[in-house]
Amino acid sequence: MAENQWPLWEIFIRSKQGLDHKHVGSLHAADAQMAIENARDVYTRRMEGVSIWVVESKYVHASNPDDAASFYDPASDKVYRHPTFYDLPDELKHM
Amino acid sequence: MSVQDLEKIFQDKIDADIRIEPKDWMPDAYRKTLVRQMSQHAHSEIVGMLPEANWITRAPTLRRKATLIAKVQDEAGHGLYLYAATETLGTGREELLDQLHTGKAKYSSIFNYPTLTWADMGAIGWLVDGAAIMNQVPLCRASYGPYARAMVRICKEESFHQRQGFEILLTLSKGSEAQRRMCQDAIDRWWWPSVMMFGPNDDASPHTAQSMQWKIKRFSNDELRQRFVDICAGQVKILGMTLPDPDLVWNEHRQHYDFGAINWDEFWSVIKGNGPCNKDRLEARVKAHEEGAWVREAALAHAEKMSRKRAS
Amino acid sequence: MSSSTPLLEYTLHLADDVLILGHRNSEWTGHGPILEQDIALSNIALDLIGQARNFYQYAAGLAGNDSGESIYPAGGGGVVTEDTLAFLRDGWDFRNSLLTEQTNGDWAKTILRQFFFSAFQVDLYEQLAVGRDTTLAAIGAKAYKEALYHLRWSSEWVIRLGDGTDESHQRMKKALEELWKFTGELYIPAPYERWAAEAEIGPDLSQLRVRWKERVKEVFDEAGLTYPVTEWMQTGGKEGRHTEQLGYVLAEMQFLQRAYPGCEW
């Protein structure tokens, strides 16, 4: 990375009150304050947001795709965690 | 796992329309091709700001001025999204810009043509953005996740660009004689370069097959070009103008328009740097970057001082 | 022939200020120091031009209201519009302050120009928003929020550049030398501004000046810049006597409307 490059930030936007912040992309900024303002100008020009989170990219830790099988496959046979697993009569209401 | 196995898993995912994400294994050639394609697209957005920014200060009404600024600003945004997506592949923006500034990386040749009249703002919006959209919409389904997501955002924003351009031409087409002349002249100058934007004919485009297999290109150059010609041939009638191609004629049998031969000599020579504005465009970008160096340094220096202050 | 009223002149002054500054800022579009800031400054240009349109539309209504010919230029059908006001008046009819028409120079000068203006504009619009003219009050209320953001953005940049590196500090000092003499005019009322203050439409500028000084000093302190001792201030822009810069802005901006009169665009 070139010496004078501003660090990269990941941008999360809440599109309206009541919803989660969602990752929308990234951008460069010299500091957190500037990252928020840049995000305002870059990612909310069309009223896409009401709240912004920024995280410097280097602080994001991600799971490794190589672990995907051991991470996620074990959940696939635990169908009893889902409501449809249970066989109940149709007459049963409000459940 | 052997490379062959990894490649098989990779291609199976792509065949099953499962997106590839940054940390997934991918063949070097895929990564390299993507970096080239995405950065070339990003460069095109950034260089593409220049011919239009050229007319911001001369826009004829306040409404036109505002929409043109908003449009050129969107292009900066699009360049930014694409650089950011490219960075997920491990190449920083500074390095990508360096490739542009030193002439190692290409950008779309269309932006090496000059914008001579106000009508060019209309023609660029209608034809150049029209061709770009034709290329870009299929890329919203590109196999590389960050690329596809950037393209979704870009296509959403682009939709006003083409309408903005067509509206400019439509107004001119209903205007004075001088305005109608301006309108036709712009169409005459931008038509063929726009048709060339789809790249060489399929038989002369060696990367196409591999890129299609990787789903980072979803239709061939000639397919998209045909679609573009068909649409524009209809739209130009609304303007009461003509496309500068005597061979343009509806082919009942093919259910497509036939069109004249493309001047590939011109295409290749503009790519090689002999377009009317290659030098100006690149110089303007280099100048902005170099003259911005002290600004970027100062912001970084201040940020460092502040974080030291907070730490102590 | 309808004569110009103080309200019309005041409205045109408000419009001209933001059109000319917005136009200047838009010269940066495509040439900014980094993409993110290119986008940021273009946003400010868009806000300012949007404000200008609102003011001009109001002015056009005022200019065209009287029976008979307006002294202001009209387009097709003799109608005065936002565009005839922006594109068909000559420099001596423009009522913008000298500060807004100064050339962009480097990023430091552009930032400082914006900062000086925004530090004035926030208080101006805040007052306008509670003034007696309902249209100007509505425009002021909406634009106030924009100005507040511009002030924040430009203040941060003044601090960054003043504090950043030796080079950026020197450039800020140079920008300050170039621009300072145009800041006094903001607070020296033109006759229509005195009228507006008396009519309780706009603010009393002498009161705004105190607040401006505080704002600027506060930011300069953080930026490590010295607040200059007041020297001779240039004036005249608000009454149509401009620096040479404005003529070039207008020559470029008005070219199409002048070359092809009476057209729709």
Structure characterization notes:
The complex is a heterotrimer of chains A (95), B (312) and C (265). Helices cover 18% and strands 22% of the residues of chain A. Chain A is an alpha+beta fold and 95 residues long. Chain A has a three-stranded antiparallel beta sheet, covered by helices on one side. In chain A, strand 1 and strand 2 form a beta hairpin. Chain B has helices spanning 3-15, 28-53, 62-87, 93-101, 119-136, 145-173, 177-196, 208-213, 221-239, 264-274, 278-291, 293-311, and strands spanning 249-251, 256-258. The relative contact order of chain B is 0.11. The model of chain B has no long low-confidence stretch (mean pLDDT 95). Chain C has eleven helices and no strands. In chain C, helix 1 crosses helix 8, helix 2 packs antiparallel against helix 6 (134-163) and helix 5 (107-128) runs antiparallel to helix 6 (134-163). The longest helix of chain C has 31 residues, at 35-65. The interface between A and C is small, with 12 and 10 residues.
Separate helix tally of chain B: 12
Low-confidence stretches of chain B: none
CATH architecture heading of chain C = Up-down Bundle
Q: Which sheet architecture does the biggest sheet of chain B show?
A: 2 strands, antiparallel
| Estimated radius of gyration of chain C | 18 Å
Q: What composes the largest sheet of chain C?
A: none
Helix content of chain B: 55-70%
pLDDT averaged over residues of chain B: 95
Largest interface: B-C, 50 and 49 residues
Question: In the residues of chain C, how many domains can be counted?
Answer: 1
Report the strand count of chain B. 2
Radius of gyration of chain B: 21 Å
Number of helices of chain C: 11
Shape of chain C: globular
